[in-house]
Amino acid sequence: MNRTSGHRLTKHLLPGLIPEETAMLEHIAPLKAMHTGAAAELARLIAPIDEVTESWDQGKAKSARFRLLKEVHRQQSPYWVWDEATWLEAASQAGDFRFHVVALGHLLGGHNRLHDTAGITSLARLADLVFGPQAIQPAVDAITETLTSWRNSTHLLPWQVRNTTIDVLLSNNSSHLQDLREPLLEELLEHYRATNATGRRRGLFKISRVLADKGIISSPLRTNQDKAGPDQAALATVPSPWRDAALRWMRLVTHEPGTKRSMLSAILVAGRWAAKKHPEAVAPEHWTRDIAAEYIADTMTANVGQWAGHSRNRARFGQPLSPSGKATRIDSVRGFFNDLIEWEWIKPRFDPRQVLSMPLSLRALMGPNPRIIDDATWAKLMAAGLTLNSEDLKPYGTPRARSAGWQATYYPVEMVRAMVGVWLFADCRIDELRRLGLECITWDEGTDERTGESYPICLLHIPQNKTSGPFAKPVDPLVGELIDAWKLVRSPQPDLADRKTGLPRQHLFCHRGQLVGNAYLNENIIPALCQKAGIPTEDSRGALTSHRARSTIATQLLNARDPLTLGDLQQWLGHKHPASTRYYAKILQRTLTAAYRKADYFARNVRTIEVLIDRDSILTGAAAGGEQPWKYYDLGDGYCSYDFFAKCPHRMACARCPFYVPKESTKGQLLAVKEGINTMLEQLDLTDDEREALEGDRDAVTALTQRLADIPTPAGPTPKELGTDSAFIPLTSLMGTVPARADGQEE
Description:
Blueprint: H1 5-10, H2 19-28, H3 38-41, H4 43-52, H5 58-75, H6 84-92, H7 98-109, H8 114-117, H9 123-131, H10 137-149, H11 157-172, H12 182-194, H13 198-213, H14 232-235, H15 240-252, H16 257-277, H17 289-300, H18 323-342, H19 352-355, H20 360-363, H21 375-386, H22 399-403, H23 413-425, H24 430-434, E1 441-447, E2 454-462, E3 471-475, H25 477-489, E4 496-497, E5 504-505, E6 510-511, E7 514-515, H26 520-533, E8 538-539, E9 542-543, H27 546-558, H28 566-573, H29 578-581, H30 589-599, H31 601-605, E10 606-614, H32 615-620, E11 631-634, E12 638-640, E13 660-662, H33 666-673, E14 677-685, H34 688-694, H35 698-707, H36 719-722, H37 732-735
Antiparallel strand pairs: 1-2, 2-3, 4-5, 6-7, 8-9, 10-11, 10-14, 11-12, 12-13
Helix pairs in contact: 2-5, 4-5, 6-7, 7-9, 9-11, 10-11, 11-13, 12-13, 15-16, 16-18, 21-23, 21-26, 23-25, 34-35
């Protein structure tokens, strides 16, 4: 029998009682049971009841029927016109037959939620009366078996999931799961939230995941469904023309959900500002160039919470707005006006790209500043992560559940270890980590170019992210080993729609039919690692979060002994633009110092040359009178006796003018053995041409000698006149004066 037939029969009957029915009801009211003769007079009232109760125990069915008829007499109206309150009153008067009267209200009155307000505790008993004995069991078994295969908490299934399933079926007036639809589930979700029915609400989420997996509904219910839109209290403080335009924009714009919510908050700030400063311009189409410029000026001096409306976070309330906060407000309003003009919702009265652009003074404060975790702390976190076990994680469940043998942590420890491995070594965004596919690891083998030995290559396939499509990057083989270990114990899970593509697929970090929580890494795993490592959860740059690992790893790769180039790092991080990489990777001071030292800037631009000082020439006055040189610069195979050698244009390409003294000459040999000769070093600042010549660039040497060919020497003649325009004397003294290290090797 169709369980809805009783309601279909009664809803078409006359709304009032006829005189014969009234008289008979008056007659049987004092009685304890109805006599046989009354059935004929009350056939219109009795027939629908008998039809829906034919599968009941007939003794109890007749008793429930008699109590219902007595309530009809008391109300002086037939039961098919009763509202829910009247049915509740009838159930309260039914005594031991309250369940039966509630079932009749469901079947005859169409009040599918009557059991909730009547306080019925045994929904299974009520369901047997409404649908027939054990009629709901196939639906309950289907839900339970699926959740058990996904490793949901078995101790919750008998009461949380079973009761919620029965409640949903009763509310839908059908014992078949296939008849369920999303609007009813969403309505029940709101009801459970309003009545604070936490157990039913959690059970409904689990049921919706099963229904989505079976294709009965399009997608599971979201736990943050109540937070998906803007706060109503915040909307109430915005002028309606501005609010309507902002909400309409939010429905159509294609940004990420989080980006849309952030931009909407800033757009509403502009609406509140306009209501206070320019009441005549509380609609976007009324904004002028002057109003927009004034808004930028006021934003530059704004405080936290100013024009923010209803704000529960008052940690920095009243303090100056941070540069990033100012930038968010300005960028959001600029994007808002750009879209309104682009979509032709308003007529352009100014160019938002110019008038609402970020001031240069603010842009200068927005430079890259990666929040790196220092090396010592990061090393301790890595050590804690690689030795993580279930005892280190936050206990889950009641003591009774744990004593019954249930796992001590919400997620299996193998899954947590795999997550930690990806976080420590793969440098993924939290959204990328959560959305990793089940087959995200590819193994390959490489060969070392120097030793010829083979080594394993582990490629991690990153899903589509906010700036690029899917890509693969090499990671430490340990990541692949931890993921493979998790896959060995992972229970079968449903296909879930990818947040970016919308396509159903298997996710690696899926348990109990849902993705790992968005905040689980920050709120559970990282604090557990910090406690195990004996370090605080915050440092001078703020809390240790999942995203800070991205900056830390990128910076370490950029500062390694054999570092990645900026282009390599950009591809490894999955950035679309090189400028984005600069916000994550930073050249450390020690790396910059080592690179500067290795570049040997001073030695490349300043050289020392050995100089011989003839003391006899100075003491005798011969040097002062110009009769004899007193200073000789060692050029390697000769000496230059020109006093102003440092300013000689030919010092790097000696033209062998009369100031040149060959070492093989008599004078040169006498200098080597003469007493009273002192040796000293003199520094020379090199030009670019001279430095290139010293560093062995043949073309630079040739160019230098050709350029000096017609330049007079200190003695007067040019190199071309002296016939030495193609000669170059290697200045070994200059080239060999790089300071030596303590171990005897050159720097």
